[in-house]
């Protein structure tokens, strides 16, 4: 099965009687699982008391794995420190904004900056790597678990001190910090770095926004440096072909840089059933189909990635709302969603439902009773299908356009409620439109060192609200357009600099120098105003929550105009030729109707229409010469093939109408 | 008036000028009140400074009581420690989960475990008992006030230490605790009891669920031991016929054990008007009629109980929403609701509305102005009616079936959100159905020492979601069925053990051995799924928030099947003969329509239909040879007597149609 | 332009490059701005390190102001202490109720009672006054900024100690405090002032309500004394004609006493666009038109006041929801609303939008880009219109009736949720009715020293819910009525004394002695009851959330009766002649329909109907011989002049129909 996507599972030998291990491993093998991930919450098993290491437990398990031919991904255990550790070294604990320390008994309650925690973490990682790295069955390492999950803010004394050092290194003098943070406002001027702290409670919950941006950068740096410290140790010991990864994609973290600097590959934890728990809103974010958006972001980190935890059962904890079991077909649907979007490895969470602990309702493949389940059968079916898709692993997802993202602006959304509202509306609208028009797209993350060649892969780039713009990024996009690319800006581009200040210059700031638009005023649309629409030729769509008033300049042409609001007849959209390509400046947000209009007019809609007609309720994804048609609906979907293709699994020919069952997947070779 | 229910009132001599006492007592006597409860918030009157006791104030009041022939229930004052005490001994205070101590100025801000608070409490209780117990007018003692009201979680240092001792006594070694708490999960293993704490803040608000169960048991034990300490002291001094009680029924407390071990009788505080305050939802829980459910639970603690505080006026504090005055008739309706359900003593709260303090809007019988009120008249009417119901006091409420409850599962609902959702739906549904079908029922609480004879009183038992099941309880229920009883299980029976673990065994676990059902899979119903229905012959009803997939075994017959959902056609209900009786296993929850179907099919509906036809908006209760018809509606109710009965109050005959006014009560002798 | 309202702007020289100052000042002059307010958040500029004062920065700016003829309002900088100060003297910081101190980085995080903060504040104020007071351009001083904004509760150690001193001074002995606070309730008795604290967390969030009333008085006193300390220092240095003020009107503060004791004039910050941000409810409070209510309250503090901050752009912070830009015309509309209601000075906030800091979205006249805006033009138009209204400044707003307010009852609303609900409904209802019936009204604040002559200005007084009544105030109102006034009481009058106790007397308490009403019972209307209506002759209106049952006495006549509720047919309204006037007692609240009925029947509606007919969507205000017609609607309004008047701006005659554009203002000379 050369080049096939392979399967794994998350297993907790420490949760089960040792007598179950062998039958568990054999039953895994039966359904095509070839790898287990273990040990990510097991520090006390290796180091039950400070400094005393024992390896018997996992040695025994690995012996068995080698006997049955099971591969192992070994984890470092730093996500859950032992009780003895936090009791003796409370400085290892994270705290809330009031300075109240978190206690033992859950997970991720530590901080990245305590020297003592770093020392003890390094020691246990070294002990594990030294002992287990040469084991034949070990094929890779996971560092920590779900970095920045749950807590992505840190307020301990250890963090307070480290934040000061971070700022000292960044700014050198207090006056540089005063300038960067705009401390002239509200008399926030510092005379010494010793006066600066991690955020503390304020009467109105507000903090200096530029300082908050630095605080988020500091958190990201802290996490990366903690992960890198572990990766460096493991690299001293691991076998050459073994990989280093971590799992999950969480906030206040530059996952791209973390992957670049510390990991070999990035892995994601995919739980689309989160869309269906008590209190969730399935109509928002396209429910489980919305995970395709996350997978697109993951793909931008590692073109071919892994899913370390792929959902197999009802999720949630004892402390919050119920969720249903995946309906028949959904486990396969979600696994194929991952594979279609670029996963080369899919590891299910978890083998058997936990019999105790907070995750007692985080269902695995098996129920408490250990009997075979329909979910286990479905794993077997996934294996069967993936085995037939040779050459899929390692191949690339095909997209003709991309949405541009960057961490400056992403972090700014966490600081700035206005920004957040714009981004939320546009990212959602573009995603929905791309799904409904079957127009696969990528996310492309850029920073000041980004290479224009990467951008040239795409005919069109949407950069929804590039509020923070730098010289380097503006030049990069200009070059992209000059060489034939089409760049579409959304409202509020370029009004901030890297520190989040709003410099005194006409908008859209740096990109205004070449994109053909001048924005002399703007307004949020809120609070009972009649919402503005945009008229673009025959098309009309809502302008969204914000509206820039655009004037074409430098030969740009006005394309669309506002209607219905008090600023009706002002221009809403301009286009200007730039070298071989062009730039659009759009004054609103990309609500779904707006995004549909752009995608259709720019010739991006329905790229596979010659091959097959598919209803809106199905997603199309193309990868490795295969076309994946994913039916997320609880009803059948009728598709129609306009030219002959073959069913990738059966090899049989397909032509004309074809029915995909509810939650069904059809993969064709084109 | 032999065997009549007697009346009392809550009175605060310390709130009023001494010159009012006598006229107050005489006006009480005028309307039939024979007992006053006093002194529950009066520590400073007896012990104004540490260790210096004075008794003049209450001696003066008791002298007057004896003069006018008023009985007195005396209270211990520990619910509100003096300011000097908490200022000098802050370890007496309870704290929030962050460890922030509560301050003086409200009530119930102390903790049960501070040695100093126990010492000072014991001393003041002894002083009071020693001085007042022999007083002729004293007929009983109330300990503390509303134990566990408001605060049923405790986080002080005193509690932290006591919790460790509780665990040390329960488990002996850390490894036993590690096993019971499933500490292998998330690396929570303890090496020493010194590492274990009361819950502290965590990043996600989650704590070890098995530890939480122990924490709730610890709170219950702490409260019981605090009450028992006081009861033991009072018993040294009280006159032989005087009783010891406490009031109110609150969470995290095994009220049954507390009553068994420390009290002579249990008393409840009944405030049905809570259903009608600002922001309340009168459509939920059947508004004031819902208090019948609480009274049924109270009855299971003390078959004949007291109401220590029976609502007489608009309730609430200065800090929260307004509530209306009871409408004419409601005070009597609610008092008769208490009497119908088993109260032998009804004490109204309070004589006159507080002129100051947080409860300035907790209206009593009289308003601030001290004039006679219509509410005072209504007390007189209650007295008149109750005086005509001879033999009622001491008699038993009549129920043909019961809902089984136990503290393991009740406490589990406080730990486990999934469980809580099931129980909430079923307890509510069974109650509504029993009310609308005029099918009086009991709650029966069982523990491992429960006696089957108690169960045999009932033809049918519903045990909605017996998630935690023990060998002893399974045997008990088996014996009940064998001897002719009908036991009905709801979904999720037996999937947990006493520690809240989910053992690896087929479901429904221990009861699966004899109840004829096998449950191989299940699902929550949430998040936009089409909700499943259950088809039972001609009947069809919603399955509720959860569905077990049931397979009959051991000769059981399948009775009902799911419809509408993806698991349609799976079996939803089985019945198996067990000796002279039988066991039903039902895979859903007891929504009201489901509960109606069960009650009707099991022949429990309308047991008084031969006597009288009553609309759904009225409750029927039978006690001591009387039939109470309670009209909770704001409209008249038409009833029709099918055979002659007599009006219990007038003695007059009733036959054929009869009208009960809005909020009216009709008691007939059958 | 004798007697014209003048214009100013808020300017932050420290936010901008010095090279911009001159062009900024000249552009201000161009649109008629003659004054700038500066320096309210600039402590560090003057005192960058402890005790070292420098004045160069503002000297440079003032030199320029004098050169271009710009007046300056100078501010004291105490609203935002320097970082060095709070780092070195953390006792200067305010704290939350848990005792957690607020940190640096926002504003108003200090407390009024720290001796060190008072010392350092006094020193910096003295330094500023000494240096700048004689400057020619300086015309006035603003103390601090928005006193009690954001934080109007204080829990620091400094406050805790000061509160004890406040109580010691107020009560002398603990037993006096025990009486005043009703400490007999819940055993709250204190033996020593040392046992009393600022509010601390309690298990139920409740505190002694009488203590809370004192706590609010204490906060008000603390703020006033802090402001007065600064004013006294400035008075030592300021030029004789320069004024002292502060800005904004916030809670827990007797703004009348503060103005009387410390200021020369009171200024308000007017942001009507708050009605239109994300999440606001424009249908509530009449949106921006609702600011007329606040302006009426401001007018009661200073008959002719200033607007220190008048909105010119979209408001809000980076941390919360978006708001739209004012629509064309609205800036002028809001400025004219201020002028119509009594403002003699209008200072816009702010010149140019902040380029950094938390208020980065608090838009000024100019955008970030510094280009001329339509908002700048609108300032010019405001200047033009106001310049034509000679004699307006210094003239009085005309009202024929007033709503009576007092701080005892206002503070009581912050303690008492029941009171708050009544007041909220009636203040809103009376305002809406006065607006829709074009019946301008005043607020008149009374205390025990109030003068009856002030009241005699009004034909009618509404005193909605005078719960707390004193002998002096009752006598004052009796004298008002005796001399021909009409006083209308709403429900619940007189049931509390000054401490918030409910004395044992028949209601409506002290005013019951002369107002002709007896209230023997009452009820809140809540929780699903059918809401009562009131029938007054032909009129019928909802009784609101509360209903007193009124009986006429002493020759009073019953005028209206309840309908629909269970207390239908009870009397709802009485009238009694009192000397030359009369007293009404109304048992409900002044919902808008109720208030309309009263205003119409008392002959207060449409006082300008002979001159002009105006639709409900416009406000009418009369001041200085001018009639202002303010169109708050987004549609045109048609008015019709019944007799000739002249357009105040053009001098042109107006007769018959006339159209006012959306958001337009018409000022006519009558």
Strand percentage of chain A lies at 15-25%
CATH superfamily name of the largest domain in chain A?
Answer: Glycosidases
Overall 3D form of chain A? globular
Radius of gyration from the alpha-carbon trace of chain A, in angstroms: 26 Å
* Overall pLDDT metric of chain A: 96
The biggest sheet of chain A amounts to:
9 strands, mixed
Distance N to C terminus of chain A: 20 Å
Report the oligomer.
Answer: homotrimer
Query: What structural class results from the helix and strand content of chain A?
Result: alpha/beta
In words, what does this structure look like?
The structure is a homotrimer of 670-residue chains. Chain A folds into three domains: 6-144 and 220-387, Glycosidases (TIM Barrel), CATH 3.20.20; 401-601, Class I glutamine amidotransferase (GATase) domain (Rossmann fold), CATH 3.40.50; 612-669, Golgi alpha-mannosidase II (Immunoglobulin-like, Sandwich), CATH 2.60.40.1180. Chain A is 31% helix and 21% strand. The first copy, chain A, is built from 18 helices and 25 strands. In chain A, helix 1 (21-30) links the parallel strand 1 and strand 2. The two termini of chain A are 20 Å apart. The mean pLDDT of chain A is 96. At the A-B interface, helix 4 of A face helix 8, helix 14 and strand 13 of B.
